[in-house]
Amino acid sequence: MGAYILRRLLLVIPTLLGIMIINFSLVQFVPGGPIEQIIAQMQGEGDVFSGFAGGGNDLGEETFGSDSGYIGARGLPKEFIEELEKEFGFDKPPLERFLNMMWNYMRLDFGESYFRSIGVIDLVMEKMPVSISLGLWSTMIAYLVSIPLGIRKAVRDGSSFDTWTSGVIIVAYAIPGFLFAILLLVLFAGGSYYQIFPLRGLTSDNWEDLTLLGKIGDYFWHITLPVLASTISAFATLTLLTKNSFLDEIKKQYVMTARAKGLKESRVLYGHVFRNAMLIVIAGFPAVFIGVFFTGSIIIETIFSLDGLGRLGFEATVARDYPVIFGTLFIFGLMGLVVGILSDLMYVFVDPRIDFERREG
């Protein structure tokens, strides 16, 4: 098993390098870099996209549009543009910039945000608590609810319980997370009905003045609606996955043999079927966790005014804040690959009979 883990760890390097190369190459063809953002802001256009739509300002001075290559750079001295390029490192060819960036990342130097004057690591650590709260609680609730429910649906397959719960699950899966979040706000956050939960934020304004018990209660009071909104789709998928996995195992010969020996149904289900049926559920854990932790948090964080990694990534993309974009891509890409290895270890933990080294041989 040790040799298998070592090989997987070594594969992380080319995989992560490929991710960075593809994304860095794509960025070279995307219009509107950080320099164009600064030019647009200086000329009162708000952001670079206004420059593409309107063509820039005509300041009546000696223009610098044809030589600079930046849309909307009229009236700005060539020396100023060159100074900006040097400051951001765009005076060097793309290959050299990429190699320098990867060398810095290997030394855990992720640079500083172009527009916030703060290190990328410090920025990520500042936003991490919100995303951890959403990802951790959403994943935990999804597993704690979905696995028992999926097992019960498998045992009572075809019953009225299975039918109406399947209807609820299909409806839950069909509802987009952002739409469910808005519905929760309207119903329970003072929209048109009840004002039970707060409208935005992760803590109250008087957080520092609360007791320890009061802080815990205030935290869960704020996190309830965002967690419910981000859990709904994962809950539906995981429940059906668990049910189908158990149905496949229940029909196998070893289950019939165990029942014929007179074993209790609970012993058959949780002593024999559970270990085999949970393999496919465990295999889906990295996708569920990463999806809830990162992908699904962008809209949820925006709707509930939570300042987490989702909003950080969106704002960095809009502002073309490359150190934040590539720094977080490297960190979270590495985390995703490591989580994939951990899922293999969980396979072995649940079923020691699995031997990845023998399968590879």
From TrEMBL:
Major location (coarse): membrane
Keyword Iron: no
Membrane topology annotation: Multi-pass membrane protein
Pfam family, one: BPD_transp_1
Domain called ABC transmembrane type-1: residue spans: 128-347
Chain ranges passing through the membrane: 9-30, 132-151, 163-189, 219-242, 277-304, 324-350
Alphabetized UniProt keyword annotations: Cell membrane, Membrane, Transmembrane, Transmembrane helix, Transport
Subcellular location: Cell membrane
Family: Belongs to the binding-protein-dependent transport system permease family.
Protein name as annotated: Microcin C ABC transporter permease YejB
Source species of the chain: Thalassococcus arenae
Taxonomic placement: Bacteria, Pseudomonadati, Pseudomonadota, Alphaproteobacteria, Rhodobacterales
